[in-house]
Amino acid sequence: MSGATTGVSGKETHKRSETAEEKSRMLALIEAALYVAGRPLDLKTLGSIIGVRSKRKTRRLARELMREYQKRKTALEILELEDERFVLQLKPVYSPKVRRLAVRPLLTPGPLKTLAYIAYRQPVLQKQVAEVRGSQAYRHIKHLREMGLIEYDKSSEMRVLKTTSYFADYFGLSHNLTKMKRQLRKIFKDLSESGEGKASKDDSKGGHQMR
To answer: What per-residue confidence (pLDDT) applies to 210?
Structure first.
């Protein structure tokens, strides 16, 4: 009887071990996916990577990984964003020191201000953007479209500009337009209060030409 008990116990231990290994594998896959993507990923995408259909289970695993990163005290962090998305990113405190080493293309002030205006006023006519931002806006728009941050609204016969899903992911903003504009208002306000973003705030209102 003792032998039988030992046999059952051994099977249970093996089963628990397999479960722990499977969990570790899924956590590692989520981490790998977030690292390689370099942008926020939603639960559906993460679930497809780890082979799980349940959003609830995927969210639980992602949150567990997020807590692990919080305990590690490293330069990286995992954040849970709106729209059921998670992102692996550098903690803001380290950005000033290593920003110049970034591989992804960074926007210069001119195109960035044009992008800020489009994002806040969208959907917006290209003509209106040029009137506010000046003739250089056409060059900025071309560059921003090539980067995949903005696009023309295909449902309109006129040249109406709007941001793309990649734009929201690139800057960690909501995909919901109303929520995105609310986030942008807060960003403009914070920049204005810090004395660094008066021009961007003015741009969002369409009151000044920034060049």
So the answer is: 34
198 vs 122: CA distance, rounded Å: 20
- For the record, the structure tokens of 37 come out as 């993507």
Pair 161, 123: CB distance under 8 Å = yes
Across residues 59-72, what is the average pLDDT?
96
Look up residue 6 and give its two tokens: 């030992």
Q: What is the pTM of this model?
A: 0.56
Q: Which fold has domain 103-191?
A: Arc Repressor Mutant, subunit A (1.10.10)
Pull the structure tokens for residue 181. 């504009």
Q: Which residue, among 74, 75, 68, 78, has the nearest Cα to 34 in the 3D structure?
A: 78
* CATH class, range 21-94: mainly alpha
User: Which token pair is 28?
Assistant: 């590692």
Stretch 151-174: mean pLDDT = 86
DSSP 8-state symbol, 99:
G
Placement of tokens 């807590």 in the chain: 67
What distance in Å separates the CA atoms of residue 115 and residue 127, rounded to the nearest whole number? 14
AA letter at 168 = A
Distance, CA of 76 to CA of 68 (rounded, Å):
11
The residues of the chain that CATH labels 1.10.10.10 are 21-94, 103-191
pLDDT of residue 102: 67
* Residue 159 scores a pLDDT above 50: yes
